[in-house]
Amino acid sequence: MSMTRRTLMAGGLAAGPALSASAAGVAGGGAPAAADPPGVYRFAVGDAGVAALHEGSLSRPLDAGFVRNASLDAVQAALERAFLPKDALPITFTPLLLTLGGRRVLIDAGFADSGPPGTGGTLRGLAALGVAPEAVDAVVISHFHPDHILGLRRKDGALAYPNARILVPEPEWRFWMEDARMADPPEALKANLGAVRKVFGGDVKVERYAWKSEVLPGLTALDTPGHTPGHTSFLLESAGRRLLVTSDVTNHPALFVRNPDWSALFDMDADQARATRHRVLAMAAAERLPVAFYHAPFPAGGHIVRAGSGYELVPLQWGLPHA
Ligand SMILES: [Zn+2]
């Protein structure tokens, strides 16, 4: 057992160019010595480059309310089937760095340095790739939950990517920035509205994009509401290849790809989110599209296949050509 593990780890380290580059990044970036080496996974979509960046993970204690419409027994059985702990759900965060027409484009921002312990890997991943925060040209946001937007700023309030255009979904902006809602926030939204105000208040310049339009050349915004009112997925297209960036259409695939009818606590409109989830998973399976998730186990991508009454995520193969 220990032999196997050692062999696997040695093989992984030797085979991973991103990891050897990352060692230099950590040493140069002043990251805490205790932090894991950055997780970076690169692959190509036509002429576009994609790097999945392991922002980190946290372990969410599992209670009966996490999946609103399934028994705790059923949820624990699904976790056991996936060889996961039964009392806590590991939730990971995976922003993507795209190299698109010569531009460096981040999709979602993680937490930067203001997240829970075990996060902050996006900045270290960028350092491992030799990409300075100043060199990021655009940050495209899928929706306004804190784990996607807080990383637009450092803890001290400074913009984390000072030269980047910040592109947000119009319907999401309209919902969260509405004056009346800001002035008199419903209890359930208070913390989130606070995060939205912190990130988008002040002098930050934000551009709003519409659904079903190109956010940037080769990157189309897809309307996938339900998780939040303006929740957005993306279709990346380059040289005849495509990648479907699902954002938070599902949380952990072992639960919600497998059981698309299940509703996580985080889905603001459970019925709409369920309909969206079915539509997106069915499309990914039918069109054999590679997909990227935000909350799947790293590298948080693969393909979707039908399995029984639900679907499965087949993980991406490490070591495919990358741009
Ligand atoms: Zn999320």
From TrEMBL:
CDD domains, per the entry: OPHC2-like_MBL-fold
Signal peptide (UniProt feature, chain positions): 1-23
Keywords: Hydrolase, Metal-binding, Signal, Zinc
InterPro entries: MBL_superfamily_lactonases, Metallo-B-lactamas, RibonucZ/Hydroxyglut_hydro, TAT_signal
Domain Metallo-beta-lactamase intervals: 91-295
Zinc as UniProt keyword: yes
PANTHER family: QUORUM-QUENCHING LACTONASE YTNP-RELATED, QUORUM-QUENCHING LACTONASE YTNP-RELATED-RELATED
Homology family: Belongs to the metallo-beta-lactamase superfamily.
Protein name, UniProt field: Ribonuclease BN
Source species: Methylobacterium crusticola
Taxonomic placement: Bacteria, Pseudomonadati, Pseudomonadota, Alphaproteobacteria, Hyphomicrobiales
